[in-house]
Amino acid sequence: MVLDAITQVELFVNVFVGVYVLAILAYILTSWVQLPYSLKPVQRFLYDVCDPYLRFWRRILPFSAGPFDFSPMVAVLALILLERILFAILGRLH
């Protein structure tokens, strides 16, 4: 089966967004618990991958809700929205 370039880009974006959303979820979950020493590199990797993007949203959000951090929720919604906009643009080119 031969896939054209636009379909390949759509597939790449879909997989990238899915994996990044899962990485953000794993980052959130690992920040709630104390991991054993053997899993600290995994936690550090998730921090290095997710925190720059989440920090961007923490700076933009106009409110602080005490101990609650809504930046992961906003970040995931922004990724999904960007994916849908990109799919709409690519759909017009297809």
Explain the overall architecture.
This protein is mainly α. The protein has one domain. About 75% of the residues lie in helices and about 0% in strands. The chain has three helices and no strands. The protein has helices at about 5-30, 40-60, 70-94. The longest helix is centred in the N-terminal third of the chain and has 28 residues, at about 5-30.
Defining key terms:
94 residues; mainly alpha
Summarize the helices and strands and which ones pair or pack:
Layout: H1 5-32, H2 40-60, H3 71-93
Helix pairs in contact: 1-2, 1-3, 2-3
Compute the average pLDDT: 91
Number of strands: 0
Low-confidence stretches: none
**Overall SS class:** mainly alpha
Largest sheet: none
The proportion of residues forming helix, as a percent range, comes to over 70%
Q: What string gives the helices and strands in order?
A: HHH
Categorize the overall geometry.
Answer: flat
How big is the Rg?
Answer: 16 Å
Estimate what percentage of residues fall within beta strands: under 5%
How many domain modules?
1
**Gap between N and C termini, in Å?**
17 Å
Number of helices: 3
Question: How do you describe this structure in short?
Answer:
The chain has about 90 residues and is mainly α.
